[in-house]
Amino acid sequence: MNILITGGAGFIGSNLALHLIKLGHELTILDNLSPQIHGSDPSTTSPLFQSIQGKVRFVRGSVTDIAAWESVLPGQHAIVHLAAETGTGQSMYEIKRYVDVNIGGTGLMLDLLANGKYSVNKVVVASSRSIYGEGKYHSSALGVIYPEARKDEDMQAGRFEPLCPQTGEPLILMATDEESKIHPSSVYGITKQNQEQMVLTVCKSLGIGATALRYQNVYGPGQSLSNPYTGILSIFSTRIKNGNELNIFEDGKESRDFVFIDDVVAATTLALNNDEANGEVFGIGSGVATEVFSVAQLLVNYYGVDVPIKVTGAYRLGDIRHNYADLGKAKRLLNFEPKVSFDLGIRRFASWVNDQTVQADSYDASISEMRLRGLYK
To answer: What are the pLDDT digits (tens) for 32-50?
Structure first.
């Protein structure tokens, strides 16, 4: 196939492109090479961009630019739509940029497909676990429950676990499946929900197969180590390598589902080639919840840099406590099953980081931005 990947010079996109090339597909990539991800001079500062140079047809441009879309859409059989602004915290104060790129860019793509004559017959859109907000829980009094955003007064008092609205007791965490309630707690999550709904709705009306993949926390060799707005593992790694203290939010027991890049590439490839995936959404993760404090300890050990790990009790408004994927549907319809355990994946990630140039740590500046806006407490 001729396949277009938007955001294809990014972490997921570049790895997916190299994999699809090996399978014999012809790749076109549309990417604006954002300095936040690729640095000031991508040809020298972005290993991700360098990895695809000369191997794909590359067009530098934004998904908000109609001319860029018109230059890459002709002749394409499939689109993997990854291009998006991705910082959960940042989305709460750069609202227009997130809406313009994530919603506006997707709307422009769909408008062109609806009104032009193109050969696209498949679209895979990158959605996110963030559309769920908090994950799925069980209450002894109410059964299955999807708690709303945690209250400021509870967080200030150190009550970080979501609480049963009837009994006030901590809820029991369950795996989040595709039928779980959608109630995003950030602007980023709202835009991802909008993206997948638009893609699934419009493509169905056009007779184009469409699939939304709700990625959990994707990590692995190659991810940006200089972006302070997204990626717990990369943020922690850069701070450790700079000898800076790790400040852990809340009590460190908040958890995430970390899914290795190779597994995400495999799931996306399966979605591209499986007609049973048309019109469907899938949670893509490892299916395992891992506590943030244990991640920090592992990285400090792997890098051999003795930095303090401080559990601060501080928190960001809009953050969730827990969310990990129920993979039942992905296994059943996509035949997807993650192959890389977190223990193996984090060793491979840390080994790669040890071979990289240490990046400047701008995390404190990103926290200051949120504090100024009342989003970090």
So the answer is: 999 888 888 888 888 899 9
Cβ proximity of 28 and 2 under 8 Å: yes
Pick the CATH number of 2-372 from 3.40.50.11210, 3.40.50.1970, 3.40.50.720, 3.30.70.870: 3.40.50.720
What is the Cα–Cα distance from 212 to 200, expressed in whole angstroms?
Answer: 8
What does the pLDDT look like over 107-149, one tens digit per residue? Answer: 999 999 999 999 999 999 999 999 999 999 999 999 999 999 8
Here the tokens at position 223 are: 């991810």
Q: Is residue 118 annotated as a catalytic residue, yes or no?
A: no
Let me know the angle formed at the C-alpha of 158 by 131 and 255, rounded to the nearest 5 degrees. Answer: 40
Is there a contact between 81 and 123 (Cβ–Cβ < 8 Å)? Answer: yes
Kindly list the domain boundaries of the chain, sorted by start residue: 2-372
Cα–Cα nearest to 324, from 294, 267, 297, 284: 284
- Given a contact cutoff of 8 angstroms between Cβ atoms, the answer to whether 148 and 183 are in contact is yes
Q: What angle do the packed helices 261-273 and 11-22 form, to 10 degrees?
A: 60
- Report the Cα–Cα distance between both ends of the chain, in Å, rounded: 49
pTM of the full structure: 0.95
Long-range Cβ contacts of 96-103 (<8 Å, 24+ apart): 98/187, 98/188, 98/191, 99/187, 99/191, 100/64, 101/62, 101/63, 101/64, 102/188, 102/191, 102/192, 102/194, 102/195, 103/191, 103/194, 103/195, 103/198
Catalytic residue among 98, 132, 188, 219: 188
Residue 119 identity (one-letter amino acid) = S
Residue 125, SS3? strand
User: What proportions of the chain, in percent to the nearest 5, are helix, strand and coil?
Assistant: 40, 20, 40
Q: How far is CA 23 from the centre of its chain?
A: 25
pLDDT at 186 over 80: yes
pLDDT bracket for residue 88 (50, 70, 90): confident
